[in-house]
Design goal:
6-stranded mixed beta sheet, 10 strands, Rossmann fold, alpha/beta, pyridoxal phosphate binding (chains A, B), 14 helices, 4-stranded parallel beta sheet, homodimer
Chain lengths: 323, 323
Amino acid sequence: MLDSMIGSDLTIDDVRAAHDRIKPYIHETPILTSSYFNALTGAELFFKCENFQKAGAFKVRGASNAVFGLSDEMAEKGVATHSSGNHALSLSYAAGRRGIPCHVVMPRTAPEAKKAAVRGYGGIITECEPSTTSREAVFAEVQAATGAEFVHPYNDPRVIAGQATCSLEMLSQVENMDAVIAPIGGGGMISGTCLTLSNLAPKIEIYAAEPDQADDAARSFRAGHIIADDAPVTVADGLKVPLKENTWHFVSSFVTDVLTASEQEIIDAMKLTWERMKIVIEPSCAVPMATILRNPEVFRGKRVGVVITGGNVDLDKLPWTLG
Amino acid sequence: MLDSMIGSDLTIDDVRAAHDRIKPYIHETPILTSSYFNALTGAELFFKCENFQKAGAFKVRGASNAVFGLSDEMAEKGVATHSSGNHALSLSYAAGRRGIPCHVVMPRTAPEAKKAAVRGYGGIITECEPSTTSREAVFAEVQAATGAEFVHPYNDPRVIAGQATCSLEMLSQVENMDAVIAPIGGGGMISGTCLTLSNLAPKIEIYAAEPDQADDAARSFRAGHIIADDAPVTVADGLKVPLKENTWHFVSSFVTDVLTASEQEIIDAMKLTWERMKIVIEPSCAVPMATILRNPEVFRGKRVGVVITGGNVDLDKLPWTLG
């Protein structure tokens, strides 16, 4: 059973099963290209637009795989998580499609807009104090009261198998890729990418991109063990969380390199992508482009898949308009 | 010869010839759909994404048709215009692809960013004073000195035939459309839409959308003759120009209705499109969605093609962040 597996048990069959399971609930998102960015980088870039995905981010793949993989008995009690970002939206969306409850524990201090978005997808919010102790205590209460199944945002093999469907689609959409690059926070997308590519196309290089100011994955990669930072500060707010054992397995086994970029490089790459490609992307998804621009020699002449992970951004607080 | 034609002489063969001529230089832009907007409007909407077009707007279709339709002899002297918006960018792009000069007369007071964008596409700028008198005088000098061919932004049959290729693509991309809606300023896109649909699919309704504050097309449509406003003020800055005889021919003959929306409705529709569809669109392209939301009964239950005309917007001055 997937939910008692560890990451290293996952096989390509789990990815294929995930894709069959979630297909009715997700988009096969398009690939966009940009002659401007190709000229700028000297590479051929293929942007996998998960910002156009249901609930606005790739996370709906993993969340849907977890939700629709539950037995009817387990599903009845619903699912639960304590993310306040895209995973909470995605899990609420997937639970809504299955018609089961989704419980989300969020700090009472979280922005109203985020709470409204979770409720908009049908999530049931229980508020906690803005501390780890309170969050864990409240989450334990919610789980005890409801019996809901915990779906971790990234350290769950069911979630990793779901995220892996993104690169499965890319392989059928883009021929002869030399490399794939994706942002890394907790490592769910990168682990899924490793799972698919190590099985189906092991020659394709896998680059993980993260902010200089939240470079725990880069330091972990070089040290050979997980290094977790306490509350890093970066505009790429989806990338602040640390690796965990299931994602570390993939990062340490299959990633080619972890590249980093500064806050200004991330903001510039984000704005340039909006300006030239006319797509709305989150700061986190600008990190791969920022690292490509910082390290052109790594990518020049290559056909590179770039995962645009999501497009949920507060249009009233764009980073280039903030002092 | 197309350049001595008037609008009413245009046939569907001119549109097909235009499409063959410009295909190597433009994108066949994708159609996006949104379950959110379908639920909100009760219609099935098919967004033709010309914001992803070369130079960021549909205007590259008409400009390319004009540029690549010139004889070698005429082309040698280049092309000229006095637009400072998307037409100037598009004409510069097309001229660059043919390797001929493009002269653009712009007020010296135009924003530096706009001048830089035109230069970025290879346009040669001659500055005038910010008055019609100066613009006309300077433009006449440039034409006399260079012999460049004037390409009007919309009142030129070559341009109308080029814009008509957009709905030609839509017909092959979307089955059984009941209606098409596009913004109307000078009427180039709407005229092209009329040209294609009146010939190939005359049952499809054609709606033109414009701001309440620049509703000259709506008033012209109801009056039965061209009414031109002097310097209307609207956030939809692509839609301030008046109809001219060649576009009036199509508007008066084939348009089903001209619908309007308020400034706030346009800004709200623009922001909502960015938030939900994750695409960058200009204020002008939000006008159709704003009019659909104002007149849901007109569109409910219909399959509607919505032309997203362009995505060139100043990210430092988004209308919802301005007081």
